[in-house]
Write a structure and sequence with these properties.
- The protein is an all-beta fold.
- The chain is 0% helix and 44% strand.
- The protein has no helices and 29 strands.
- The protein is globular and about 45 Å long.
- The N and C termini lie far apart (44 Å).
- The relative contact order is 0.20.
C-alpha cells in the first residue's frame, strides 16, 4: 500500500503570516572538527549585524500579507520594530536575499505567481524595484554571487522544476535554463555552491517502502532539461533544507523519523556532510536543536518540524524548529556558530492555527 507523502515546507494552515526581521548576535554552533564553515560567495561580511527575514503570523486574513520586523539582542526576540506590506491580494512563499542585501519575496496573487524584489531595508508599503512573473509557485529561492536567481517548485502534477533567471530579470523574463527531475519527486529546498553545482533537496511523492525517502541531488553547473544528477545523498527520514559552505561541506536539516502519518518526528538536527558525500553516508557532525515545549492548551499535539538551512556572512548557520499540531505553534529560529556544538534561539513567533517554514538571512 502506498502512503501519500505531504510536503512539509511552506505550509499555511488557516492563518496569515507576517514577514519578521531580526538583527542577531553571536552564539555557540557547529562545524566539521578543525574546519570552520566558510560562508558561500555572495554572503555579506560578518562585521555588520545580520538581518533575518521570516514569516510571522496574525489572524486577520488567510494568507501571509504583512511583514513584521523583529530585532534581537542577546536573547530571543518576539517584539516587532517595523513592517513590510505586500501588495494587495498577494500572499508570500519563499524568501531569499542577494549580495547587495536586496530581498526576494515569492508570492501568489490574483494574476499568478511572481517574485517581488525589494531594495535593502525596504519597509512599510515599499514598492518592489522589480517584479518577475513565473509560470509556477515559488517554493524555494536562491541568489548566487553573480545575482542569478534560482526558483524551485513542484506540484501535484509536476516533478521538481528549477529555473535560473539572470541578474536583471524582470516581467515575463525567459529563464537562462531550466532543470526538471525525471522521477516522481517533491521539492523542499535548493542551493548552489561556489562552483555553480546545484543542490536540490526533495522527497519521494509516495512511500512505497523503497529507500531513499529523502535526498539531496547534485546537478552540474550546465545541467538543463531532464538532466541526471552527478551524485545524490540519501536519507531514510525527512529532510527540510540544504546549504553548502565555501569549503563545499553540505548541511541539511534532518528530522528524526518519517512523516507518513504513522511515525512522528521527535527532534530536528542540522547534519554536516563532506564535500563529496554520496549515497547513505555518516555525517561529519550533528547538532540537535533543543525541542521546544508544546504551546499551552494544545491538546493532542506531538512531533516537531524543521525548515531551511542558511548561512550569514560570518559563517553562522540558521535553521528553525516548529512544535505544535492543529492549534497553537512555537516557531523558533536557531543560530549555530562556527566550530560550536549547540544551537541558540534568536527569534520566535507563536502562530495560532498555522505556520510557515520559510526564512532568509541577510
Amino acid at each position: 500500500m502506498k502512503h501519500s507523502i505531504k510536503p512539509r515546507l511552506g505550509l499555511f494552515l488557516g492563518v496569515a503570516a507576517c514577514l519578521c526581521i531580526s538583527a542577531c548576535s553571536g552564539a555557540p554552533g557547529i562545524s566539521q572538527p578543525g574546519t570552520p564553515p566558510v560562508p558561500p560567495p555572495g554572503s555579506n561580511s560578518g562585521t555588520a549585524a545580520t538581518t533575518v527575514y521570516l514569516w510571522g503570523f496574525n489572524a486577520f486574513t488567510p494568507w501571509p500579507q504583512t511583514g513584521q520586523a523583529y530585532e534581537s539582542g542577546s536573547g530571543t526576540s518576539s517584539t516587532p520594530v517595523s513592517t513590510l506590506q505586500l501588495p494587495l491580494q498577494s500572499w508570500g512563499w519563499a524568501l531569499a536575499t542577494g549580495s547587495s542585501k536586496e530581498l526576494y519575496v515569492g508570492v501568489s496573487n490574483v494574476t499568478g505567481q511572481q517574485i517581488l524584489v525589494y531594495a535593502a531595508g525596504a519597509s512599510g508599503a515599499a514598492t518592489p524595484t522589480r517584479v518577475i512573473d513565473l509560470p509556477y509557485t515559488p517554493q524555494s529561492l536562491f541568489v548566487d554571487a553573480s545575482g542569478n536567481l534560482y526558483v524551485g517548485s513542484s506540484g501535484e502534477q509536476t516533478n521538481i522544476v528549477v529555473s535560473v533567471y539572470g541578474p536583471d530579470a524582470n516581467g515575463q523574463a525567459v529563464p537562462i535554463r531550466t532543470v526538471q527531475s525525471a522521477n516522481n519527486e517533491g521539492l523542499t529546498d535548493i542551493t548552489v555552491d561556489t562552483s555553480g553545482y546545484m543542490y536540490v533537496a526533495g522527497y519521494a511523492r509516495y512511500d512505497s517502502g523503497n529507500q531513499p525517502y529523502s535526498f539531496i541531488d547534485v546537478y552540474s553547473p550546465d545541467a538543463e532539461g531532464s538532466a541526471e544528477p552527478v551524485r545524490s545523498i540519501s536519507f531514510g527520514v525527512f529532510i527540510n533544507g540544504v546549504a553548502v559552505d565555501g569549503n563545499g561541506n553540505v548541511f541539511a536539516s534532518v528530522e528524526s523519523a518519517l512523516d507518513t502519518g504513522i511515525n512522528v518526528s521527535t527532534s530536528v538536527a542540522v547534519e554536516e556532510f563532506s564535500p563529496q558525500a554520496s549515497g547513505y553516508t555518516t555525517p561529519t557532525s550533528v547538532v540537535t536543536l533543543p525541542q521546544q515545549g508544546v504551546p499551552a492548551g494544545e491538546s493532542g499535539a506531538g512531533g516537531v518540524g524543521g525548515g531551511p538551512v542558511r548561512f550569514d556572512g560570518a559563517g553562522n548557520i540558521y535553521s528553525p524548529e516548529i512544535t505544535g499540531n492543529e492549534g497553537s505553534f512555537n516557531y523558533v529560529l536557531y543560530k549555530i556558530a562556527p566550530q560550536g556544538t549547540s544551537a541558540t534561539p534568536m527569534a520566535q513567533v507563536n502562530p495560532e492555527n498555522g505556520y510557515n517554514f520559510f526564512f532568509a538571512v541577510n
